[in-house]
Amino acid sequence: MLIAERVQKLSESATLAVGAKANALKASGKDVIAFGMGEPDFVTPEPIRRAAMAGLEKGLTHYAPTPGDKASREAIAAKLRTENGIACKPEHISVTAGAKHALYMTLQCLLDDKKGQEVILPTPAWVSYRPLIELAGGTCIEVPSTIESGFKITAEQLAAAITPRTVGVIINSPSNPCGVAYRPAEIEAFAAVLAKHPRVTVIADEIYEKLLYPEVEPGLAHRSLGSFAELAERTITINGMSKAFAMTGWRVGYVCAPGDNGRFAKELIKLQGQMTNGIATFIMPAIVEALTNGASDVERMRKVFASRAVLMHQRLSAIPRFRCVKPNSAFYSFPDVGQCLGLTTPGGRKIDTAQHFSEALLDEALVAVVPGEDFGACARTNVRLSFACSDENIVRGIDRIADWVARLR
Question: What percentage of residues in the chain have a pLDDT greater than 70?
Answer without folding.
Answer: 99
